[in-house]
Design goal:
Layout lengths: L16 H5 L2 H4 L6 H19 L5 E6 L5 E5 L8 E2 L2 E2 H7 L24 H6 L1 E10 L2 E8 L2 E2 L3 E5 L4 E8 L11 H14 L4 E6 L5 E3 L5 H12 L12 E7 L2 E9 L5 E6 L2 E2 L5 H17 L6 H9 L2 E8 L16 H21 L1 H9 L2
Helix pairs in contact: 8-9, 8-10
Length: about 375
Amino acid sequence: MLDEYDASQIVVLKGLDPVKKRPGMYVGDTDDGTGLFVMLMEIVSNSIDQFLAGKASLVSITLFDNGDVEVVDDGEGIPIYEFHGKSVLEIIMTTLHAGATWDNHRPHTHVGTLIGIGLAPVNALCDYVDVDSFKDGTQWRMRFENGYASDLIDKGTTEKTGTRILFHPSAKYFSSLVFDKQAISSRFEELSFLCRGLTLQLKSSQEDIEKFYSPNGIVGYLEKIMSFENRAYRDKVPPPVLHFDTIEKNTKVELALCWSGGPGHQRSFANHLCTNDGGVHVDAVTLGLTKAVSIQTSATLDVEAWSKRLTKGLYLIVHVNVGDPQFSSPTKDRLINGEVFNAVIEVTFQQAKGYFKKNGELLHLLQSQD
């Protein structure tokens, strides 16, 4: 016979207890390193936000032999003023769903995480976290142990600005505390292309510093992919690249594309998160290009045939930033915002008209493709 079920059996988890009870719901797999990576990139995403706001130019990660990980940026620092009886620093580190990116004040970057968990779940799953905020001429420090805050300490005056977070994941929640350095390196390289002008550094006790910086942004990314996938490209004059970075209907759109003799490659991003299955931003590029072709050719336009021609040998990177990105599933592999679709079609059409007019030989070559 089943036990009687009544109100006395209801359990209400408070504070950070839900994270500690079910860590996998917040960070993913706690055995294969995925969860560790998500935690790290959640901290990094806050630093990337500082760059996007024009406040930071450097993000650095250091992996220590004892399992500590340090993330440092030169942004404006975490606020420490009192809010609801606690410092803002303590609130964002100990309260679920607390932060400055819920009001759509600017497109938020989802870096290395599927759900945008914030800093509180990271804190919950660590033995300790030390946070230094260099702000308004003062260095402030707060230590957290097992998710609980100690006193905020004034460490004195400083000329520095930025944030330093040192954390140590807990073996109570993770079967391995070893971070995948290659995964971090790959993500940093990707971010350097998506964040033109940002310097990212990865350090460890055993190896030299890896630095990632791309003065050409996604154009450099496009050229790297083409060179890697199409060896013949390395010895040829680079094909003409269409590149633009603009805002259309509250959607920031950056695109780089060209055609070459290689197999072609399409890579898409929404708010710095890779959309592996594409989405409306990728579909809109093809339609925008097709519209532009219709202006340059006098022949009756076969949309389906031209769509195939335009995607053959096409190397494309498209990155959109939108205030409230919508996806077809929790894995965020496909973007579905209708307003993004319309914005990308329009801006691609306007930019591609001049591109095809200037590169008439390319248009004839595309027209001859089956």
